[in-house]
Fold these 3 entries.
Entry 1:
Amino acid sequence: MNPAEPKPLLETMTWPEARRAALANRVVLLPVGAIEQHGPHLPVDVDNRIVTWLCDEAARRRPDLVMSVPPIHYGFNTHNMGFPGTVSVEVEHFVNYVADVCRSFVKQGHKRVILINGHGSNAMPCALVARKIVNEHDDALAAAINHWNLARDLAAKIRETPVGGMAHACEYETSWYLHLAPGQVYMDKAVADVLQKRSEQIWVDLMAGDGPVAFIDDWSRVSNGSGVEGDPATATAEKGRLYAEEEIKNLLSFCAEFQAMTVPPRRNYTARGTDPNPYHDA
Ligand SMILES: [Zn+2]
């Protein structure tokens, strides 16, 4: 390979190459996943596989713009510990660990970090980590994306599952897996399931937003045992390919904007600061 060509993945770089990646202001894409039950038809690595592929493929297509780094494999997952094959990290540990990983890239000279999250329960802690990084640094920005949000418009056009029930090991996630690794999906074991409805105000839907009440109970209490939330039988590899392409396109477009985003200095308008403000005498 031509040594002048930027490599897509950090793990294959030497340290001089990693330094050049930071000097070139390449946006760091950090995949954040989970090892978690995904029904009787999908392997437990669904979230990791999708986000790692997404980040790696984005970097393969635009190595001048982004760099993919090794993933955070384990997530915040206490609600699924009743199902075999699930691993959970306490939320405080998760936030501190992921923030340390992000800080490392900033210390190495990167100015933009994006957490690409693949697991619903990581969403809030990932957003929190991104905010911590922004709060702590004057010249570095971090953001968090739940990857499914990059395909919301497309989902509204192609989904077959009614709104309110496409949440886990569902039409969407199964389609993704059929696109990436069809040989590992047991479609004959793909069963439709919905969590027991306990209120008109509570539902979870990856693609259409959740209900007004934030309430996640232990899944072993509300699932009828499959671990699925949705209808994986309607999944196809073609839907997965469409989702993958849509998400790559929207991700790269955001990365270009994020890289170019200006970072003005912070101001202190309080009685302790000296920055002028036209409203001081209002
Ligand atoms: Zn998942």
Note: Residues 128 and 248 are 24 Å apart (CA to CA).
Entry 2:
Amino acid sequence: MKYLITGGAGFIGSNFIHYLFDKYPEIEIINLDKLTYAGNLDNLKKFSAESGSASGGENYRYKFVKGDIADAELVNKLVRQVDVVVNFAAESHVDRSILDPAVFIKTNVLGTQVLLEAAHKNGKKRFHHVSTDEVYGSISLDSDEKWTEESPYQPRSLYSASKAASDHLVRAYFHTFGLPVTISNCANNLGPYMYPEKFISLAITNLLEGKKVPVYGEGKQVREWLHVEDHYVAIDLILEKGKVGETYFVGPPDEDRPNNLETIKKLLKIMNLPEDRIEFVKDRPGHDVKYAMNTSKIRKELGFTPKYSLDETLKKTVEWYQTNIEWWQKIKGSPEYKNYYDQQYAKR
Ligand SMILES: NC(=O)c1ccc[n+]([C@@H]2O[C@H](COP(=O)([O-])OP(=O)(O)OC[C@H]3O[C@@H](n4cnc5c(N)ncnc54)[C@H](O)[C@@H]3O)[C@@H](O)[C@H]2O)c1
């Protein structure tokens, strides 16, 4: 089986590539990634060494192609060579979508359409689109509501609006052209290779550097956290057993729903650090209050059970950042990262 993985040099995509290679000895993968600030070939060092060439030759099981999913000519050439397309490529950080919305539309909306068109034109290739729970909007704190796959889309951030648009395009290619698509909408992920600017990876790395942890507002927002392993196993299961045209929610085991402040306190406890390491900063504009998904569909229909509790997920993630200091220090030491960090937190 030949896969085109887009965004495979990012956090979740690179974890998925590692998993596929370990699980399927015959697999062939083309990884198409633009290498934005979030794309990092250090996440895939193993494959460059094994295949002998990160840029790939004719005889490859893994081939890396640097390029843009919005480049129709390139995308057509690559899609023609594969059986399955899995689309991870995206601008993925809400904070950055406030600073520069246009690139979110170009990659997340136009880029997804270019991929869909290529999958359609080249023999209706199987297409899986990786999306987020954030497209469903925000739930009030005092509500017990949980979204289902049938809930209306109500995105509120520029990131979630662009992801919502991409999901609609995926569904439209199914209904209009019969393209065999599936979509997964997932909770926030944690785990290896998570770029150290997102809430928890920033918190862990700041704590390891002896710095404080920025928490937006009063930290009352409620999020669902899933270990990345549970996410990529679910995607593989959807590709194997999912019904085309369907959307599946992927979320953590039911019991753990702390707010952001409580989550950071759990983290501090795991790392044996005092609570005065928390620093409250000015809230993000339009910050979604709460996400909550009812994930019974994937459990009942595909037999998926997430493996890790929140405590286990946090512990495993802390351990990874403690043992891979070089990986994240290289990123945090880069001018791009410092520039972003100053812009984001200096005046808060
Ligand atoms: N991280 C999460 O918690 C989470 C949760 C739910 C859904 N998702 C979705 O999962 C997917 C992957 O998220 P992530 O956290 O790994 O993101 P990430 O930001 O770590 O990685 C994104 C990757 O896409 C690449 N990319 C960006 N623009 C591109 C373009 N135009 N062409 C080709 N490649 C491009 C980047 O270089 C990077 O390697 C995204 O679609 C995101 O919306 C993420």
Note: The chain has a mean pLDDT of 94.
Entry 3:
Amino acid sequence: MKGLILEATWEPKKGYEVTDWEKKTGKAVTGSSVWRNPNLAVKEKKDPEIGPSDVRIEIKACGVCGSDIHFYETDDQGYILYPGLTRFPCIIGHEFAGRVAECGKAVADLKNGDPVTVEEMIWCGYCNPCRNGFPNHCINLEELGFTVDGAFAEQIAVGAKYCWKVDKILERFGDEKGYEVAALSEPSSVAYNGMFERAGGFRPGAFVAVFGTGPIGLAAVGLAAAGGAGKIVAFEVSEARRALASKVGAEHVYDPKDTAAHEALLEHSDGEGFDFMVEAAGAPHLTIPEMEKALAINGKIVQIGRAAQKVPMYLEAFQVRRGQVFGAQGHSGHATFPNVVRLVASGRLDLSPIITARFGLDEAKQAIGRCTERCDGKIMVKP
Ligand SMILES: [Zn+2]
Ligand SMILES: [Zn+2]
């Protein structure tokens, strides 16, 4: 089969201390400090083989993610920009849906032909965080498209326990569009996990602000609408993405370079502030200071965007306004994937307008290149 393989050289930056665990596993904890001179190419690879608890899936659609861009772009020394857990070479791509083509002997809940989407996080189920109910914090984590073969490919083999059926999504959207929409389940589940699992959600009628409307922020806007927000305001620097935010449910969308976010939020709430604010910009040093100036009493902030930097916070604001900040990562557990699938199948969460371009598998590298322009919503690769 064909797949988009990322190869890179293991060459830790000066000052990066490689741990025994990294040596043993071949996984870099901070990829951007270890992997140099990445090379992406569609190549032939042996068809994936399944174990007794696995399924083989024919991939129908796989979205390009910000992290894929960070494998493609490098710093001035030629290191990848992605700062997370990685082991190469591997096939990248992790936001996907497809059709089950083969089931292992022990697989009971899936059969050939079932349409599924799949968690990206291959949590072990045995470590203490997993056993305690926190699979998003698994210490033996493997990640599809980061440490093991992912889904910019014709096929993938994964454990059946990471798959969720999406037949109801296909019933609503049809086969062609249905698989693309189902492939949005992974980023949507990241937003859902942050908003509803970690931060505990908001009450219907609450005022919700979303900072940054890349694909995760767009999903947050859609989820805020589906969850009954009384008003949704978004901030985004890209004009094209501002237009998409309006399409999926934001009533007011601003360029934060032109408008001070806290002023807009105070105006839209008659001075009371916003109840629930989502950081999906990955620029908390800029967004959190705005949020804390527009925090309603009992307000919540959830950090979903990634940024390896310290943030100035005025904690007095959180005391006086009874505020809370939540850190969120991942998408597994807590009924998150199945609830997202239900919302999409019901039509209450329709993110289909955010899919703005499609490429074949042979053009997967070009698809990622196009993403570096950061003017699209979600780009799909369709093998
Ligand atoms: Zn992603
Ligand atoms: Zn675990």
Note: The pocket of zinc ion (ligand 1) is lined by residues 65, 67, 94-95, 187 (CB under 6 Å).
